[in-house]
Amino acid sequence: MASGIEFDWDDENRKHLAAHKISSAEFEQVLSNDPIDLAFGLVDGEERYRSVGLTNRGRLLSVAWTIRNGRVRAITAFAASVSDRKAFLERLK
Q: Which residues on neighbouring strands pair with residue 60, listed in sequence order?
């Protein structure tokens, strides 16, 4: 993902990430640190993406996001599952 991207934050998506013990800064770091794209789909007509990548402290996270009004909006994030971790490590080879 290109640097300089704008993110769309509000109380709703920040609280959702916090429930998963993920900060908005960590979410942004994953998308700025060359994540691996795992999935793409349409949900209620909106394009949704799922990526896995590292925070600046080396935490491997799975993140779901969309583009709204030209900005990246967090949908959810969580510690990478075993399958996401495996996909991430395999693509690094």
A: 54
